Amino acid sequence: MQIHILGTSSSKPAHGRSVSGSVINTEKGAIIVDCGEGFQERIYTHNKDLKEKKSLFRVKTGKICTILLTHGHLDHTWGLLPFLKTLSLEGRDKPLTIIAPTTHEIINRLFETKNPFAEISDLEPSNVDLCFQFRFWWSLGGTREFLDFETNWILVGTNENDEIGKTNAILIDPLGKSVEKIDDFKDYTNGIEILNIPTLHTVPSCAWWIKEDDKKGKFNSELAEKNNLTKEEIQLLAKGESVGNHSHLDYRSSEQTGPSVLISGDTSGENNGFINFSKTEKETSLLIHEATFMEENLDKAEKYLHSTAIQAANHAKLIKAKHLIITHYSSRIKDTKYLKDEAQKEFDSVHAASDKDVINLTSNSIEINS
Ligand SMILES: [Zn+2]
Ligand SMILES: [Zn+2]
């Protein structure tokens, strides 16, 4: 799994840092998490830089299957529609899925009325609710009418106290005007395993956990040949059947766990979503967590429902992540070294992300190319 971090600034570009957006390459395809203003420009220049550096890792836009949004603030969403338009101009014809959080009340209203455009103002949504943004994007050209590919628009209900893994999501077709419930995101991610973890911010928000599949161990055909087994017997062992007193388990190395990343989006440093997630069996190789403020600005973090670096580190400890990368810095932070130093008081493996970092992740190793 490789993660390309294409923006580390909160709310506005500052000190050479852009707003949020990341690309996660897995073996089954690529997923984007957040898509702030200028996202397509950043992918383009990032790829150009990687090509010049002769890097093995690129962002292949044709491989992108899903865009996940963490919440509706514009520094996380405003690059989405121009990016869709560019994909269409580049000749994309494969479907693309967009998944974004909203309130359970809005999900239920749209589902009960079976109307993507149902009145929701009485539910007092935030002015940047992603239900509104979906509707703007459709009206501005985000549908099959104007794009050369299908788009699956999915809203997922989120609340800090949700049970982890219990999904309340709807697939919306604005042209056919249909709304249907979906149970499994995998049908819309090219089979990549993802999970929404509710977080706590000033608008409905969630973190996204993304996992690469486990890999079967390698079959030891040399050992089978050395033991004078016939071709048919070797085939049976390779299929997972035992032959006589030869157990198939002796002929295959152990399974390799796939790496997983959890990307926080914007969140308060204390919330039930992370506590509930820590009680599940899910492993997290890497937590990418916002650290908008230094500890001296804890009052601001609490007021605006953001985190300090120490809170990010505490979340990494809580969910037993192997590594922590901090991001989403306030413009008051010039040198991210101080944030990293604070986080390292609580957690060993910390990196303060820079724009265009490429992280190569396995379940037991991490390599960061800045
Ligand atoms: Zn933000
Ligand atoms: Zn925000």
Task: Give an overview of the whole structure.
It is a single chain. This protein has 370 residues and is an alpha/beta fold. It folds into two domains: 237 residues, Metallo-beta-lactamase, Chain A, CATH 3.60.15; 31 residues, no CATH class. 26% of the residues lie in helices and 23% in strands. It is built from eleven helices and 16 strands. The strands form two sheets. A ten-stranded mixed beta sheet has the order 8-7-6-5-4-3-2-1-15-16. Strands 9-10-11-12-13-14 form a six-stranded mixed beta sheet, with helices on one face. Strand 3, helix 1 and strand 4 form a beta-alpha-beta unit. Helix 10 crosses helix 11. The mean pLDDT is 94. It binds zinc ion (2 copies). The site of one zinc ion (ZN) has 4 residues, from loops. The site of one zinc ion has 4 residues, from loops.
CATH topology term of the largest domain = Metallo-beta-lactamase, Chain A
Give the number of DSSP strands. Answer: 16
Radius of gyration, whole Å: 22 Å
Bound molecules: zinc ion
Main beta-sheet annotation: 10 strands, mixed
- Poorly predicted sequence stretches spanning 5 or more consecutive residues: none
**Number of spatially distinct domains:** 2
Largest sheet, spatial ordering of strands:
8-7-6-5-4-3-2-1-15-16
Give helix and strand order, one letter per element, not per position: EEEHEHHEHHEEEEEHHEHEHHEHEEE
Overall average pLDDT? 94
- How far from one another are the termini? 16 Å
> What overall form do the CA principal axes indicate?
globular
Residues in β-strands, percent: 15-25%
Structural class: alpha/beta
CATH C-level name of the largest domain? Alpha Beta
Write the CATH architecture name of the largest domain: 4-Layer Sandwich
